[in-house]
């Protein structure tokens, strides 16, 4: 049954939703041999499992690799795994609880909201450049540079160094795809070393001369005598960039492609952008989510929809499928920018709910808002192509004219 699921097929990546419907109806919990994972496709199951403490992003807080029946990653990949393993995304309690508490004291809602004028200014500048040139690639000109610039400014990264961040992030996140190649792993390790060394230098500068930025705030955070270690700070900053910009970039590109394919909804958004933008952003994230799959380890035997999944297994939670489940969303294959009841799972759920969700929402509202305001006649030049990646799913480019 899992033969309908083919994440290495360009046709599947371009349109996985018919296959998802088949999985939900006929095999909602099914073992997928090529990646050694259990695919879970229904909203109710995915939502529940995201909150289930019998599952974890890691198992190393409870078992060794050998005890869990898994092989340790090769030693040459250690720089990547140290970087990734000390970030919030791949930790479980008590480490996750402690680090999230400390990071949240620096990365506050007030601090995020204070970034709105910066996001507005950057979005307006980028869209202004696109309009002045009569169009171009929406991904390269607006979607990619905006979140990188915002996160760099938030961390206090000098403007002259910002060009380094996107390539590092792209190389590191390549490891999140299914069965990454040896070359992908080598690139990820190199980027992990370079990015970590760079941030170590930035931390040393802020220790000597603190600034009004998040990196200085992370250094200064103190809670009941507890502080973040240098490695935890480095991993937090890298996670903020990787998670914070990959999702925003692909929501922007995928979102505009969805709008161009649904001209009635685009017309409605153009007619009332202020009123519709907040719900439109949520609907675009649901309709064509940038993160199609999120993985968990089974720490104790768990039964899912009548299927027993044993300890030691890996589960693949199919966000893209859950967000189109007709059991939860009325007419799920229809883009409805005014959709009010929209508990999509694109930001996750439970203890790993995306810490940067409020900032992502600000970036998306301001990015779409600037394009609607400055380029009201924006139109697509040619049908875009999808990147080969499935887990983090986005378009190569979106060529437009204004």
Feature tags:
402 residues, 5-stranded mixed sheet, globular, 9% strand, alpha+beta, Cytochrome p450, 3-stranded antiparallel sheet
Distance between the termini: 45 Å
Helix content: 40-55%
What's the order of the H and E elements?
HHEEHEHHHHEHHHHHHHHEEEEHHEE
The top-level CATH class is Mainly Alpha
Structurally, the number of domains stands at 1
CATH topology: Cytochrome p450
The 3D shape can be described as globular
- Alpha carbon gyration radius: 21 Å
Largest sheet: spatial strand order: 1-2-8-5-3
Give the CATH architecture.
Answer: Orthogonal Bundle
Q: Report strand %.
A: 5-15%
Beta strands, count: 10
**What is the averaged pLDDT score?**
96
Describe the structure.
The protein has 402 residues and is α+β, with helices and mostly antiparallel strands. The protein is built from 17 helices and ten strands. It has a single domain (2-401), classed as Cytochrome p450 (Orthogonal Bundle), CATH 1.10.630. A hairpin with a 4-residue loop joins strand 1 and strand 2 (37-40).
